[in-house]
Amino acid sequence: MRRIILLIGILFLFSCQKKKSASFDKEGTWQAIGYGRILHIDKDSFSFYDTSSISCLPLQKGNMDSFGNNLTLRNDTLVQRKGTGIYEYTRLDKMPNICTDLLSDSKRNDPVYNFEVYAEAIKNNYAYFEDNQINWDSLYTANQKKISASTRDLDLYLVMEEIMSVLKDNHGYIEPTNEVYEQASALDKDAASQTEEDTLPEYGDFQMAKLVSDTFLDEDLTVDSPIVTWGKLKGNIGYIHVKSMWLFADLNLPDSLVQKNGYISTYVDAFAQMNEAEYIEKERIGASNTIDRVMQDLQSTDSLIIDVRFNGGGQDVVSLEILKRFNDQRKKVASKKTKTHDGFTPEISIYMEATENAYLKPVFLLTSQQSASATDFFVMASKVLPHITRIGSRSQGALSDALEKPLPNGWSFAISNEVYYDIDGICYESIGIPPHYELNYPEDRQPFFRRVAQNLEQDKEMILSAMKDFKR
């Protein structure tokens, strides 16, 4: 018996040692394939760095527990799952010297160095040089000549903005300091003379959503959701208005902070402290809970309208979580590849899961040029569902994720580094997904908003008329 107990004890200790060793297999330094990222893992903690051949800037630190089950080893590759994305890393022998060398304050604030870091990131990661017929070498050379050690922050920002405008990147942006942004805004105001357009009313996304929902709904069934409005029209037609593809997560926001800083600012501050994969999963869960309630209320309708005309996007997982309520079998909805410094990664497929008792009666999806980003993805993914008909105008065509990057001086920017394709291999970046029934909405934001806001009943009748045409 003593021998048996001793043997069990040895096996137990050996098992624990194996488990402990396995848990440390991920330790070390890993370089992302594409994206310009390095992940360093030291026992229970991690650090992310944004890197190029001339820079290494810290991004985020945290505890390994925040990855949950989203970080796994596959042979010699580290695989991170985040939303609909799969990110692969290869092991480095050690941290690059550029990541361990101290960056001096003078270099950190050097306009030439900041411009070069910006340019290097675009060269290595921007995915649409060929599609948008951009000669990067010429664009870089022309703008590099404008930068010197004495260049003011405002002028550096304006040069960077000029490059971004040439790239025609729907997800591209630059965030300087508030002071620089205000200086640039003042220049725009000085350069522009007031026109009749400046005196016309302006509308926001959520404001438009309320105006339209109030007009459409004969029976409002909305409960406890600031993001989704739902109910019924006459003729047993259901109506779902989705205002955004984010803001669904339950982040336990303190009322005092919401009152002080506003809901969205407080929400952004809260999720900025979280691991991104954890935050995205919370968005999916929140969307799932909301859309379950919506579909329960509208399951008995004869047809449905889903309105995303004023939805600027959010998270792709939210889009799929909503859309799968209309899908009865697992389907591939898209594929994507990522820009690397010398080409592209292999394409990966994106799938939509099925829902039991899916809604398979006629669905009419309302779109516009303001249906962007994750809403673009929602519209594109809906193409695999034959009972969904698109009415309105093309979506915006901002499908790529925004690759966010820091600059040494503390500014940040983003560029599109991924190419999405629908199931037929078509890329809709910049051109948007077309509707089945065109309503010729204005492309520009405020003219479109004003046209709808000032003709609410007419807009509703146009849509109902289009629906009748497709039901025949």
Automatic annotation (TrEMBL):
Gene3D superfamilies: 2-enoyl-CoA Hydratase, Chain A, domain 1, 3.30.750.44. PROSITE patterns: PROKAR_LIPOPROTEIN (PS51257). InterPro entries: ClpP/crotonase-like_dom_sf, Tail-specific_protease. Pfam families: Peptidase_S41. Signal peptide: none annotated. SMART domains: TSPc. Residues 250-440 form the Tail specific protease domain. GO terms for molecular function: serine-type peptidase activity. GO terms for biological process: proteolysis. This is Peptidase S41-like protein. It comes from Flagellimonas meridianipacifica. The lineage of its organism: Bacteria, Pseudomonadati, Bacteroidota, Flavobacteriia, Flavobacteriales.
